[in-house]
């Protein structure tokens, strides 16, 4: 009996000792043998990386989408010259109207937009599926199934095991 208890204990101790065999701390790890590489200082920058953050911003772009499959139909254009931005975008609303937004922004007047709504809204009737009555089979009410064999077995008053209960 003592051998049966001592053998598993011996195996646990032997496995634990085997894990730490030859352990000398973190000094032996290769990661701690390398020195950190110093980065270049900011004084030693190259001319090819100079960026003028105060340059005069100037750009222009436009795009449009006309997808007959999804019904997505929109356009957008914008130009910027310094602090003055001007643009316009259009899109088709869900009610069928076309929204056109023309906007301008500058450092004196801020952002100003004019919104136009073109067309007459069309209401789409919401179709609700007709619900058909679901026919269910009649469900039999649960009735406890007490067996007479339990009545004379010395159970406390009020306790009767339920037989036939399903989860």
UniProtKB/TrEMBL annotation:
Domain of life: Eukaryota
Identification of the protein by name: Uncharacterized protein
Organism of this sequence: Choristoneura fumiferana (Spruce budworm moth)
